Every structure is written in structure tokens, then in C-alpha cells.
Amino acid sequence: MARLDSVWDALAFDAPWKSRQEKENARDALERFLRWHTDERDIRGSTTAASEHDFDVTLDAGPHQIRIRGTMDRVQRDDQGRAYVVDFKTGKQKPTGPDVEHHPQLAVYQLAVRQGALDDAFDGRTPDTAGAQLVHLRLGAPRKEGGDALPAVQTQPPPDDTWIGGLLAEAAGRVLDERFTPTTGTHCTHCAFRASCSAQPEGRQIIE
Ligand code: SF4
């Protein structure tokens, strides 16, 4: 909280009331993070294996090989020695349950774990993946999961390689063939490119 106080005034806001409101939100998010952190250890018996963990792996995707580099916000080791990757979110929206099950970012993290992305954090062995989680620091958990003082947590079970492998192969094929046709969906609601997106009525003049 002291650190938050010391850096806050350097951030630009449109109005003083907005700054105060966002600072309250930031405090709430930090408090949720701290409760989540202690519950992971004290209630679920997991330990922190890594944080801000950089990785660089090559994954097989159909006829292609894809190099993936990134950073895992946090990696926990569960009481059976398995790994689960945690991605902290600070947005105001969260995906639906079915969307989490097929959340590409979480699934790619889990494939990366199977491909050795965490070996250095697990004494040189490749841990089994126990799933991956979105932890929404800005959103309180439902009452039956602890209520507003805790973050909303969504978990993806270990993925079957088929669908995520297929998705990666499709993505690689699109990049190599330069097929960039936009695909509409719920993700369009908050998209900043609607006005220039050929799949939306307001952006159609781009290609007409
Ligand atoms: S509006 Fe167009 S660019 Fe934006 S998310 Fe939807 S399909 Fe993609």
C-alpha cells in the first residue's frame, strides 16, 4: 500500500475523482491478491514455484512448428508436485465458463509446461500440468466461493492436445498464407477496431 501511495500521483487521470476511484480499485485488487496468495498456501497447500517466469518453447502444430515465447505471471506447485499456471487479470470483464475451457492463452501455457517450459523451476523435471487459472483481481468471487474479498478464479483443466494443437495449426496456416479475415464474436463488444473492421457494418467501407 505504501508503494501504491508513492507511485500513484505520477499516473495521469482525467479528473481527481477518477484518480480516487481507481486508487480504491487498486487497493481492493491488492487486498484480493494478498488473500488469494495466503489461501493458496494455507488452504490449498500449494507453493509458489515461479513468478514472472519467462519461457521459450517450440510446439508441434500439425505440419508446422511454432516457437512461443512469453511470461507466466505465476506458477504454483500443488500438493502432488504438479504445476498450474496462473494469469492475473485486471480487466472488468471475465469470460464465460465454456470460454475458459477453451481459453487459448491458458491452453498454450499448459502445452508449454508439457514441452518443458517449467523444467528449470521444477528441479529439471517436466511436471504434469494440473490446469491453469485466470485470477481476476478486479472482480470479487461469487458468495459461495468466498465473496467480494477474494478474487474471482476460473480454472481450465489440463487440455486435450487435439483442439489446442488444431487451433495453433490453424493460426500458423493463417499467418503463412496471410489469411487475416476477421472473425466476429463476443470479443467484438470491446474492440477498438470496430470502425475499421471489414466484418462490421461500420467498417465495411474499408473493403468496398
Ligand atoms: S470488431 Fe472485427 S477486429 Fe474487432 S474483434 Fe470483432 S472481428 Fe475482430
Distance between the termini: 53 Å
Classify the helix fraction into a percent range. 25-40%
Number of helices: 5
C-alpha-based Rg, rounded: 20 Å
Write the H/E string, N to C.
HHEEEHHEEH
Global shape: globular
Query: What structural class results from the helix and strand content?
Result: alpha+beta
Please state how the strands of the largest beta sheet are arranged side by side.
Answer: 1-2-3-4-5
Which cofactors or ions or other ligands sit in this model? iron/sulfur cluster
What is the mean pLDDT?
92
Total beta-strand segments: 5
Question: What are the defining features of this structure?
Answer:
208 residues; 2 domains; binds iron/sulfur cluster; globular; 32% helix; five-stranded mixed β-sheet; alpha+beta
Short overview:
The chain is an alpha+beta fold and 208 residues long. It has 5 helices and 5 strands, in the order ααβββααββα.
Description:
This protein has 208 residues and is an alpha+beta fold. It folds into 2 domains: 34-177, no CATH class; 183-208, no CATH class. It contains 5 helices and 5 strands. The protein has helices at residues 2-8, 16-42, 97-101, 104-114, 161-177; strands at residues 47-61, 64-77, 83-89, 129-140, 151-156. A 5-stranded mixed β-sheet has the order 1-2-3-4-5, sandwiched between helices. A hairpin with a 2-residue loop joins strand 1 (47-61) and strand 2 (64-77). The N and C termini lie far apart (53 Å). The chain binds iron/sulfur cluster. Iron/sulfur cluster is lined by residues 182-184, 187-188, 191, 193-194, 197, 199-200.
